[in-house]
């Protein structure tokens, strides 16, 4: 934490205006890339993978810097993120084989 | 209200520290709420994915202009309001009350603009004959998932605007401290984060392939 301390706002509130502007700028760039992908009208599967990847990067930026989880204790990160990932994996395991099976029943 | 000296009590739980996560209870509570709320949104988005995958004629009605451009502008508004919220939290921690209140209110204005523009889009769709149970393009469930997802998100934005106004009022009168502002910021960023998934899944994946 001492690496950030040139301006010394508060110990649990690191990050400068400049850093937040950069994060905001990159979020806008990634959004523009997503819209460009839609404009190019890629094949749906490729498009879906790219969009989910970009969305995950964007949400990681928001959580890490805007919600400054990056500057919190590791323990807080560990009770939030792995829990969410576990729940989502459990949902996916049970839902998706079924919906794909229904899709195959269509002519 | 005196701010807690977090570092003094933040030792490891195994060493007898009383605040093992080194945050105040409000913040931990908000994080846990956001965890459960993200599961609510996840299941809503997965339900949408489920019916879309298993549907034979799912419509892709959105043109680049106006629907996609409008949604892109909504994204821009939400991202910018997140930036002003970050500024508000930083100002609150520096104890610059007036600046913080102005930034919080700017954020709330962003939220109101978002809801207003989004409602206009809803009414445009109503005029085209889209309802939660029917449309002129294909699978009737399209409207159900669209209005369900965007409606749930819009509800969150509306509640967030009310929340921010209360925080601005209380912080301006020194009834709340910087921690309250920070926790309301967490909620606002989460609403922004959810839109980062709804925007590509609902809008960009439904761009009209013919156009």
Estimated radius of gyration of chain B: 20 Å
Largest interface: A-B, 53 and 56 residues
What order do the helices and strands of chain A follow?
A: HHH
SSE string of chain B, helix = H, strand = E?
Answer: HHHHHH
Shape of chain A: flat
Strand residues, percent of chain B = under 5%
Helix share of residues of chain A?
over 70%
Secondary-structure arrangement, i.e. CATH architecture of chain B: Up-down Bundle
Per the principal axes of the C-alpha atoms, what is the gross shape of chain B?
elongated
- Span between N and C termini of chain A? 60 Å
As for the number of domains of chain B, it is: 1
How would you classify the helix and strand content of chain B by structural class? mainly alpha
Stretches of chain A where pLDDT is under 50 for at least 5 consecutive residues are 1-12
The main sheet of chain A comes to:
none
Q: What portion of the residues of chain A fall into strands of 2 or more residues?
A: under 5%
Count of alpha and pi helical runs of chain B: 6
Description:
The complex is a heterodimer of chains A (107) and B (211). By secondary structure, chain A is mostly helical. Chain A has 2 domains: 1-72, no CATH class; 73-107. Helix content of chain A is 74%, strand content 0%. Chain A has 3 helices and no strands. Chain A has helices spanning 17-40, 44-66, 74-105. The longest helix of chain A has 32 residues, at 74-105. Chain A is flat. Chain B has 211 residues and is mainly alpha-helical. Chain B has one domain: Cytochrome c oxidase, subunit III, four-helix bundle (Four Helix Bundle (Hemerythrin (Met), subunit A)). Chain B has helices spanning 6-9, 25-53, 64-93, 97-127, 141-172, 178-203. In chain B, helix 3 (64-93) runs antiparallel to helix 4 (97-127) and helix 4 runs antiparallel to helix 5. Chain B is elongated. The mean pLDDT of chain B is 91. The chains are: A mainly alpha (107), B mainly alpha (211).
């Amino acid at each position: 934490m001492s690496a950030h301390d040139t301006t010394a706002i508060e110990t649990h509130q690191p990050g400068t205006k400049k850093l937040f502007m950069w994060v905001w700028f990159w979020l806008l760039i990634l959004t523009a890339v997503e819209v460009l992908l839609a404009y190019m009208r890629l094949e749906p599967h490729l498009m879906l993978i790219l969009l989910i990847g970009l969305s995950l990067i964007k949400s990681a930026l928001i959580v890490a810097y805007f919600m400054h989880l990056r500057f919190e204790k590791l323990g807080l990160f560990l009770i939030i993120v792995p829990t969410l990932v576990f729940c989502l994996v459990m949902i996916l395991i049970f839902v998706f084989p079924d919906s794909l099976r229904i899709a195959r029943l269509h002519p | 209200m005196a701010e807690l000296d977090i570092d003094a009590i933040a030792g490891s739980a195994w060493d007898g520290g009383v605040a093992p996560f080194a945050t105040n209870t409000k913040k931990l509570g908000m994080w846990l709420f956001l965890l459960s709320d993200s599961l609510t949104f996840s299941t809503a988005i997965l339900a949408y994915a489920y019916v879309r995958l298993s549907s034979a004629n799912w419509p892709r009605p959105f043109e680049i202009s106006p629907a996609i451009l409008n949604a892109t502008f909504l994204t821009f508004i939400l991202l910018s309001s997140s930036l002003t919220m970050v500024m508000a939290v930083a100002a609150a921690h520096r104890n610059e009350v007036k600046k913080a209140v102005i930034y919080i209110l700017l954020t709330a204005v962003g939220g109101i603009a978002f809801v207003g523009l989004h409602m206009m889009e809803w009414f445009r769709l109503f005029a085209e004959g889209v309802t939660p149970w029917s449309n002129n393009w294909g699978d009737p469930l399209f409207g159900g998932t669209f209005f369900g997802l965007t409606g749930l998100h819009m509800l969150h934005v509306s509640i967030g605007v009310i929340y921010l106004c209360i925080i601005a009022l209380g912080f301006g009168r020194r009834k709340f401290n910087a921690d309250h502002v920070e926790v309301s910021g967490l909620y606002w960023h989460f609403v922004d984060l959810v839109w980062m998934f709804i925007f590509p899944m609902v809008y960009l994946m439904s761009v009209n392939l013919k156009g």
